[in-house]
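Hi W., the PRP complex you wanted:
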Amino acid sequence: MRSEPLRLVLALPKGRVLAEAVAALRAAGLALDLAADERALRHDGADATVLVMRNADVPTYVELGVADAGVVGRDVLLEHGSALYAPVDLGFAACRLSLIRRVGAKGPVRRVASKYPRVTAEYLGRLGSPAEVVELSGNVELACLSGLADAVVDVVQTGATLRANGLEEVDVITESSARLVVNRAALKLKADVLRPLIEALREKAGR
Ligand code: PRP
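Structure:
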């Protein structure tokens, strides 16, 4: 006897990536119903339940198996430090993680602020720099403008934030884009839905 296909639970990041993630999943054949209320955190649709959260929390939900799969930036995955299965580069939300300073800054880098303390510490370690890392949770560029730090490591997408604040990229640490992440146990238990989803997303993303 064949049972009903298992429903998926998906962890998706709130904000500008949400619409692109939903569009990619729909294009791959999933029927997702999202409530019009942008403050709703849980959406129960025909094929899946969508949980909407801060992007930094997506790896935790997928790793612990509360969500079967999710969409999250490679930058966030690197910072989380997890060995999550990330089978598809979805291509959107392309950005870079860069070392940023005030335009023309020349002095030594003694303190670096970032939302990405792990990536920053690894980067400084590779350079052999003894600079201190200070963790912040948003508007990180302000650290450079206020004297809290003499450099920051942050996301650069269009470069508009840098231009608006007299800052420049000194070094590109790594490139990022959105990835599909999948819980390894769910991949076995819900193979009937997850395998075709992975294939369809790969095909659509051309990767
Ligand atoms: C991100 C990032 C930069 C900005 C870069 O911030 O931290 O500040 O976007 O994008 P741009 O190059 O297109 O200007 P976000 O808006 O996600 O908010 P946050 O600073 O609170 O993390």
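The pocket of PRP is lined by residues 138-141, 154-161 (CB under 6 Å).

W.
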